[in-house]
Amino acid sequence: MYRKDEKEECCYNYKKKQQQAAIASIFSYKHMKKVYPVGLYRSSSSSLSSLSSNSSSLSLTLSQNSNDDSSLTDHSSSSSSPLDHKVSLALRLIAPPRQRRREQNSPTVPPRPVGVLDHDHDQDGDGGGEPRRCNWITKNSDKSYVAFHDECWGVPVYEDNQLFELLSLCGMLMDYNWTEILKRKELIRKAFGGFDPNVVAKMDENQIMDIISDKALSLVECRVRCIVDNAKCILKIVREFGSLSGYMWGYMNHKPTVNKFRHPRNVPLRSPKAEAMSKDLLKRGFRFVGPVIVYSFMQAAGLTIDHLVDCFRYKECVALAERPWRHM
């Protein structure tokens, strides 16, 4: 009976040792590393046999601050398996952003300085280095229209002849668009004597008919006679206010209105000041000076700055508006 119990005890101990060996092989670091992409650590100095008796605990941890991959590779002298390599790559993808940036060795684009807008680098969005303009200027826009936007539109004007010219050109918008007008601007300016009010006001019937019959100009008769009549009205304003510039800028308190529009749909067709100026001009005998035409004139002459805020001309025109003595 005693030998039988001893024999059973020996068999039990043998099976127990086999179970411990199997558990040790299963929970060895090399095998666990293939299942869990983390480091395996044992608390205290307990032996492998304590795994079966639950006398110790396991902790699975990810290193978020280390730069090397020592916790993800085999510590033995043998080379890592393909599975280990895949696990390592997967871990790099899910690593924290700070750690990923340190681990990437490929050259990166330097960060953009604070306060530098997009249009300072690529202002047209096409990588061509073109400045960013107002949205109504497109790649298909005529060169004369683009040049007018870049050089004239929104620049404060204080000279009487230039103001008279812009007011006359804006009156032609009822029959033509800006591109058609700007292509003939030099011919129109020459035909009307540089838009000198003293010269235009003295034009006789023969001179008016010569302008009307000029096919290169292609101007409607009522527009030509309107310009001549407006020149006579300007002479009256000059006698009363000293200059056309003083009269126009008096409505603006001698300082342009600076708007901050971001989208073309925000830009109005008229404004209260344009309506007030239009009403007074009509009383003084001017023709074709409705509030919409007057507001177009105010935009072109820089009485109001309506460049979109992301247009490269916005800051330049605002600087001229705030420091008019630099422009005059």
Automatic annotation (TrEMBL):
UniProt-recorded Gene Ontology molecular function terms: DNA-3-methyladenine glycosylase activity; metal ion binding
The keyword S-adenosyl-L-methionine is annotated on this UniProt entry: no
Q: Which InterPro entries match?
A: Adenine_glyco, DNA_glycosylase
Basic and acidic residues biased stretches: 117-133
Pfam families attached to this UniProt entry = Adenine_glyco
GO BP field:
base-excision repair
> Keywords of this protein's UniProt record, alphabetized?
Metal-binding, Zinc
- Which stretches are tagged as biased composition: Low complexity? 47-82
Q: Which domain of life is it from?
A: Eukaryota
Question: Which region ranges are annotated with the description Disordered?
Answer: 47-133
Q: Which SUPFAM superfamilies match?
A: DNA-glycosylase
Where Zn(2+) binds, per the record, is at C134, H149, H307, C311
Decide whether keyword Zinc is in the record: yes
What protein name is recorded for this chain? DNA-3-methyladenine glycosylase I
- Mind giving the lineage of the organism this protein is from? Eukaryota, Viridiplantae, Streptophyta, Embryophyta, Tracheophyta
